[in-house]
Amino acid sequence: MRYWIKFTKLDKQKYISHRDMHKAINRIITRAKLPVAFSQGFNPHQKISFSSPLELGIASKAEYLDLELTNELNVSEILFELNNVSPIGFEFLQAQTLVTGAPKLMAWIELAKYTAEIDDERKVLETIEDLLKRTEIMVEKRSKRKLRMINIRSFIHEIKLYDGKLDVILQTGQKGNLKVSQFIEIFNEYSDKELSFDNIIKEEVFGDNLGQYIPPFVLLNQLDK
Amino acid sequence: MRNKIEKILPGVKSPAKYTGHEVNAIQKDFDNITSKVALAFPDVYEIGMSYPGFQILYHTINKQEDALASRVFAPEIDLEKELTKNDLPLFCLEYWKDINEYDFLGFTLQYEMSFPTILYMLNLANIPIRSVDRLENHPIILGGGPCAFNPEPVAPFFDLIVIGEAEEVLVELLDLHKKMKAENFAKDEFLANAAQITGIYVPSLYEIIYNEDNTVNEIRPKSMLVSPKVEKRVIKDLNNVDYPTKPIIPYIDIPHERMVLELFRGCLRGCRFCQAGFIYRPVRERSKEVLTKQAREMYENTGYDEISLMSLSSSDYSCIHDLLTDLNEDMSKDNVSISLPSLRVDAYDIELAKEVQKVRRTGLTLAPEAGSQRMRNVINKQVTEEDLMGTVKAAVDNGWKRVKLYFMIGLPTETTEDLEGIADLAIKVAQLGKHGPMQVTLSTAGFVPKPHTPFQWVRQNSIDELMEKQKYILSLLKRKRYIKFNYHDAETTYIEGVLARGDRRLADVIEHVVKNGARLDSWDEYFSYERWQNAFQECNIDADFYTARHRDKDELFPWDHIDGGIEKNFLFSDYQEALNAGILIDCRDGGCTLCGVCPNLDIEINLAKDIK
Question: Is the pTM higher than 0.90?
Fold first, then answer.
């Protein structure tokens, strides 16, 4: 039985890398004594996969994992057992069984929404307007020793100021990826000022279903109908 | 401070080394705790977190209701730069607070080459390095660990040093601190009181008087109240002390990522080069029941998939078969594999290793230590060439494919034949391969005579001698491409030797190298021999004095006031026996050897098989 599980990576957990988080969650699952399925082969490992890696230093309220168990458990029981043995910062918020036709998390998720606290509201507002007006924002991209310039304007889906906070939706995942740190770099370049972005949090992720961008659990509900 | 740390962490490599938020790390209410201890490991996080002893200290302190322990390691260079740039002091992981807010800063002294890193960390913490220069409000600097058995080269930097096993004495020290803190103590007063506790050495209470030839004339207590000798602390029954079954689980990769079960302390095989074999006597085993219970608890608290059975010689555990059977039965259902590190050179161990279900059969590591039977007798390593061949043969038959062999060079009485023996053994071992010669990794380390061993009197080989010997072995292995030959850097070995048997005057040298940028000197990439040479010259110290001379039978050593319980006479007669290539049988098999430990410390050998 497969499940999607939404969890947080808050507080100091933002300082651990994706790979180390994978290991930490393997151990949480072991300690929680969930009947996790193991891969076959010489070196069996837990059947678990994650949504796209979060940049080190960024906190998140919306990480997702795909977990396979050998028998069916009540989702509230799964969440309880996981939270029971989890360190501060990791909190398992929601779980749902997978319905047929559900895509792979990593491939499906295309957008991520972040919020950040800012100090210079006027300057930020000016820069937002400037950025959104442009059709071309070129950045250097390094891939396998090659350095090339790419236009990342289309990777910025939304920027707005809301309640004194910056809200941005950036492209993430396999079809293109704009890191928050890259975004901040661009933002500072265009504002010509070293602005401070504090308490950056990934709020939610979205994927496409019939032309609409929706969070993973909304997708499961739509597929279920 | 918190905000500044938050700002710099995303920019350094592996920030999770500095956050202190690992699973099973302990957070207490900092401001409402009386005795706060910053526990320092003078090396980087990955190394420090691989030492089970460090976790024992952490656990022992945190278990006290009114005390807390927080860890601190040497920062990597990238963090060091950020600290300097942002005008931040070195901080402790758990609370991100200035070390000056703690009552104690305790360093573990695991190996001599970490001495410079201690001063480097004190500098980063803005704490004066010498105890005489520190004020009332600076933390009390505490030391302990194997190198505390000759703490003299670092003595001027420490306020007090724990000799021996810490579990009980630390609690006594914390109790004293709590009591005296309530009375608003003066540091001197506290140290004088602490010196009354068995196992606590306060260096400032002893004066060292030297002879004209630079040897020690007298180690003189400055007051009638301090004992001329500091007796080590030893736990009589290991079943009565707590073991951290909730160890901290690092997020980042470290060399030893597994549960560690400590089977026993001490070793009575009497290998004459091995300091651990003398300073941790006698053997005290944990009972099989306690161990299986601890293993289960550790698994529940960690989720690790490997458990390592640790001690100085794990196959010597008196109930090893039963223990392995029980552990296998209990742990295999959870996919936990059992590992036996440091196999001995006899076939018995291969039998044991076979019992361990999922042991990794890729590489077998054996340490014959010397190349000829005569030389193995000199060092009292009681294995024969037949033992070694038999073990390797059994291993090959059971699926092992590669062998690592460890030897020492520069041992006392060593001749060319002994070196040839090393190359010969490696070649013979390789010939045991099933399909042509198998891969052998041959490693040699330069021998460093250590205090409290029968070899504390001997001359250490010079850098040139060691390099000659390395070259000679290499020449014997020409065209033997299946043998990979590694050897330790002779210059590091030399400095280690100077520090190992050094006296207080070396503190100037350590201070000098640190002023000139020394830190993490146990790492080849940071070690600079030239820096040490300069320091010896500037401080007017002849380093050869510490390594390149035979010491007289009656010479007073700088560490003679540190009492491990073993009679100096016993060590000397064992040394004479060594020079005649005579062996000394383990007292469990051959009767008491009169080393003195049991009567002197009022203690007995404690074996699991005798526990009813």
Answer: yes
